[in-house]
Write a structure and sequence with these properties.
Chain A is α+β, with helices and mostly antiparallel strands. Helix content of chain A is 20%, strand content 39%. Chain A has 9 helices and 24 strands. Chain B is 22% helix and 36% strand. By secondary structure, chain B is α+β, with helices and mostly antiparallel strands. Classes of the chains: A alpha+beta, B alpha+beta.
Chain lengths: 488, 464
């Protein structure tokens, strides 16, 4: 692929580009799903192409093509150059990139078992067993399971001399049981909703999740929700499970710290951010217990935001975002780092594939666990009155990432340190900084899970990206509960 | 552009490489470009070319799909082999139908109206310089009013085609252009968006002027208390919220009992002034006139006078529904040309939604004039489903929310969160406009009217 990349770099440089980078990506994926005892779909997909990013006359141009012949690549490079010239017709300042060391590297996601080597029969057999277990529960009206694998091999080169070969693997799996009766559709999911758990690792994830072992409980809970009481409306203490807290981090920390949003570059679609530049190191984001990092490094774990290098050749890094409750950092790129006084990019520029422009994306945005040993059971024992909520059902937040409302699949009332009656339709709402400042307990490392969010949408044309979110169960005080059904 | 003749040649090769009982190939791709601006400059500017094939093979009730954008012979052989190896290991599904013939497709095509051409040379010929010139006009409007603007100007030319081993073949080419504009002031914003197959229908200056007016007139927004308000929803706001119910207007959703229409087809669900149908050939619609199996999209009456009349069906779903105990509660059952590519779990969905024109259409200005106290909503954002059967949705207002007092706009408002049932909302529509082609961010484009709705439920207010 080095020849292909050099055709792009050489052509654009000869035309007068001041900077060029190119990525060839060979993407392979497999998707399997079952529904009510049958295979829902079984599909493979592959996609190969090149994306070329150019600065000319101080402005950006990007072109992508599926034709990797010399003629096709040079035509795409010429197109990127022409587009950059057109961009320069509506500019104020020249693009400036933060300096980055030239690098030659090869990096692959650590994995034990290549998921594409596991037979399709074995995968479908497991999914159909789970499906049968879910439907063995009387009252389950719909059972869905899925398994997804991806292998993304990328060759990157830049006119500054970097050359990086990177191969990333990801695995995702999960299932859901639905129970329709009377005027309600109830749902329980495992290990998480909206596709389950996803990580950058191999097939070993499937065995780790104890999928079959949890299926009957999940089906039973879906049916039991029909007899549960409605979550009461009011102000209460809530305890969130780690998967729900992971999504809470995604929406109310991960997005507002994206520097492109802060700078107005996403104002037309994804929105802006309440975290204006004056708030850096000058805002109490949360309580003293809130410590959040953006960590793309391998040592953080196999998150969907773990990699060796981002898509402009910057090595993976760990950036403190919230330290002891204080807001400390943004997600940045080579183009934006200077706006926060940084001399180097935070290494967060990623693209969905060869045909998309890399943009600032969450890496693994994780809350650090509590330092003192604390299990979920101990946290509930320590709570006299509250509601424990588990597994996301709905999520919504405004375009500055301030006012949010989340619904969960299931809840339980906590009375005098005991988990008591089941509650259906639990929801909570609030204002981002008020919410994080109300956190007064978080469980310890043994309760911490690095969750994957495979479906984060951003950009125009929209790109879907996987992000990681480590979290442990945590407790929040004086939270508005139940407003999703207020007035209904 | 990939031509039908080139696709036919590729299909012949794929068929030759396959040992399956049946082969169906879906072709997709084209070229597209998008110029993106923010802070009154072009900050991202992209173009893409990509074509691919998606091959479905079937062996006696077993089927699977594999896709690739590599169109050389070796890759085509590999994609056929991948599809076959996925299909062969499955248990036979007695519900899987053979691929349709041309005769079956034509016999099911009761709605003979052809869609107008959706390919325009003027759109296909747009250059980066043309888009930059359009953006410059938008930036000039922002500069004149000391505003900051962000948005896009995009264009594309695309193909879709389907060929199967029983002789059915169809092909569709289309162009599309889109402009979306946000104008940002110190404490307010305004937004407009439009798209069309024909770029000559888009005027960046007109769109920019409306966005400017919304941003400037909503400055210094007030906070008013939450509660139930009469709202005037502009077409984009209607589009984004009603779009959440059309996944449920499919036969498979009924069979799966995941639709809010279960036990409700044939009943009065909405107000008598609500009429909705699906019509791919409608002059304001876009997209291919055939579905994922090549069946022609039919005109389907979904809601008439507030009564849910029918849902849409893929071939296989219609056959399953006819055998189901739910059949008597599912309305008319026949393939309507709305199936997704097989195999899939979702079945089908109407994607060319057209709301009926009301007897006495009112303009947004007339709706405002007849409102003592209410809220004008330009756009909704981050809508998600709270309750799937009562169809309670939550979301935020955005980019132009105004208080209406005594029949006039009385300034901007801080944005609200709503928690509102679609059933409730479409039962409380007091007035509607002439349906227009609208474009939002939460749902696909539709032909929808502006609506005046009473008792719309705002439950929270945000800080801006």
């Amino acid at each position: 692929m080095k020849d292909v990349l050099s055709w792009a770099l050489d052509l654009a440089t000869q035309k007068g580009a001041s900077y060029v980078d190119a990525r060839v990506v060979d993407d392979r994926s497999r998707s399997l799903a079952t529904k009510n005892g049958k295979v829902g779909h079984a599909s493979d997909a592959e996609s190969l192409g090149i994306g070329i990013r150019v600065i000319a006359d101080g402005a950006w141009g990007f072109a992508a093509a599926d034709d990797l012949s010399r003629r096709g690549v040079e035509a795409a490079a010429a197109r990127a150059f022409a587009i950059a010239k057109a961009s320069a017709q509506v500019k104020r300042e020249n693009i400036k990139l933060a300096p980055e060391r030239r690098v030659t590297a090869d990096w692959t996601t650590p994995f034990q078992i290549d998921p594409f080597t596991i037979s399709i029969e074995q995968n479908l057999d497991l999914l159909l067993k789970i499906d049968a277990e879910l439907r063995s529960v009387a009252g389950v009206t719909l059972a869905e399971t899925s398994m997804n694998f991806r292998r993304e091999e990328q060759w990157f080169a830049s006119s500054e001399g970097s050359s990086i070969h990177q191969t990333k693997y990801s695995t995702g799996t999960g299932y859901a049981a639905y129970a329709f009766a009377s005027t309600e559709i109830m749902k329980r999911s495992y290990p998480n909703s909206f596709g389950g758990q996803w990580q950058n690792k191999g097939y070993e994830l499937i065995a780790e999740l104890k999928l079959l072992e949890n299926a009957r409980r999940v089906g039973e809970e879906a049916v039991a929700l029909h007899k549960a009481d409605q979550c009461p409306e009011g102000v209460n203490t809530i305890v969130l499970d780690s998967s729900q807290l992971g999504l809470q981090i995604h929406e109310s920390v991960g997005h507002p710290i994206e520097l492109d949003r802060v700078l107005g570059m996403e104002a037309n679609f994804a929105g802006t951010s309440f975290l204006t530049l004056d708030k850096l190191r000058n805002l109490r984001y949360g309580s003293d217990l809130v410590n959040v990092v953006a960590d793309a490094r391998q040592e953080h774990g196999p998150g969907l935001g773990t990699f060796g290098f981002d898509d402009e050749g910057v090595p993976a890094q760990c950036t403190p975002i919230i330290t002891n409750g204080q807001f400390m950092g943004y997600l940045s790129s080579r183009e934006t780092a200077h706006t926060i006084g940084e001399s180097r990019s935070g290494g967060t520029l990623r693209a969905e594939g060869w045909n998309r422009l890399p943009m600032i994306r969450m890496t693994n945005i994780s809350i650090l666990p509590g330092e003192n040993p604390l299990t979920l059971d101990q946290l509930i024992s320590d709570t006299s009155d509250g509601i424990y909520m588990e597994t996301n059902k709905s999520w919504s937040i405004d375009d500055k990432r301030y006012n949010f409302q989340f619904g969960c699949e299931i809840g339980w009332e906590i009375k005098n340190g005991k988990r008591t009656r089941m509650l259906k339709n639990p929801s909570y709402s609030g204002i981002t900084t008020e919410f994080w400042n109300s956190m007064d307990a978080i469980c310890s490392r043994d309760q911490w899970t690095l969750w994957g969010t495979p479906n984060c949408g951003k950009g125009q044309p929209q790109q879907i990206m996987g992000t990681g979110h480590g979290a442990a169960p945590a407790r929040f005080r004086k939270i508005k509960v139940g407003s999703a059904y207020k007035g209904a | 552009m990939l031509t039908r003749e080139q696709a036919s040649d590729i299909f012949d090769r794929l068929k030759k490489y396959s040992t399956a009982d049946e082969v169906e190939v879906y072709f997709y791709g084209g070229h597209s470009a998008l110029t993106r601006f923010a802070n009154n400059v072009i900050h991202q500017n992209v173009a893409e070319q990509n074509y691919g094939v998606s091959v479905r093979t079937a062996f006696g009730g077993r089927t699977a799909r594999a896709s690739t954008n590599k169109l050389d012979d070796e890759s085509l052989k590999r994609v056929v082999a991948a599809s076959e190896s996925l299909a062969k290991v499955q248990r036979p599904d007695s519900d899987l139908l053979p691929v349709p013939t041309t005769q079956e497709r034509d016999a099911a095509n009761l709605y003979k109206t052809n869609a107008p051409s959706r390919h325009f040379a003027e759109t296909a010929a747009i250059t980066p310089e043309d888009r930059a010139a359009g953006v410059k006009k938008i930036v000039d409007a922002a500069d004149r009013h000391k505003l900051t603007t962000a948005g896009i100007f995009s264009s594309s030319e695309s193909v879709e085609g389907i060929f199967n081993s029983r002789g059915l073949a169809d092909w569709h080419t289309q162009t599309s252009a889109e402009i979306s504009i946000t104008m940002l002031a110190e404490d307010s914003s305004g937004w407009q968006k439009a798209n069309s197959p024909d770029v000559r229908n888009l005027d960046p200056v007109v769109l920019a002027d409306v966005a400017v007016r919304k941003a400037t007139e909503s400055a210094s927004p007030r906070e008013v208390s939450t509660g139930k308000y009469t709202v005037v929803l502009e077409p984009a706001a209607v589009l984004d919220i009603v779009g959440f119910m059309f996944w449920d207007f499919g036969g498979q959703a009924l069979l799966d009992e995941r639709s809010f229409l279960n036990n409700r087809v044939g009943g009065q669900l909405f107000g008598e002034n609500i009429n909705i149908h699906d019509e791919a050939a409608h002059r304001l619609q876009s997209g291919a006139p055939f579905d994922g199996e090549g069946m022609r999209r039919q005109r389907v009456p979904l809601v008439e006078k507030g009564i849910v009349k029918s849902v849409v069906y893929a071939r296989g779903t219609a056959a399953k529904m006819k055998k189901s105990e739910l059949a008597s509660k599912a309305g008319p059952i026949a393939p309507t040309g709305h199936g997704f590519l097989l195999p899939n779990e979702m079945g089908e969905m109407p994607v060319n939604i057209v709301f009926g024109e009301p007897a006495n259409p009112q303009s947004v200005d007339q709706m405002i004039a007849s409102t003592d106290r209410g809220v004008l909503v330009t756009r909704l954002w981050y809508i998600r489903e709270v309750d799937p059967y009562e169809k309670i949705l939550t979301g935020m207002t955005r980019d132009g929310t105004f208080l209406i007092e005594n029949g006039r706009l009385a300034g901007g408002l801080r944005n609200f969160r709503f928690n509102e049932s679609l059933i409730h909302m479409l039962s409380n529509v007091d007035a509607m406009g002439v349906p227009v082609r609208a474009s939002g961010e939460e749902s696909f484009d539709m032909v929808v009217p502006a609506m005046k709705v009473r008792d719309f439920n705002f439950t929270e207010v945000t800080k801006f």
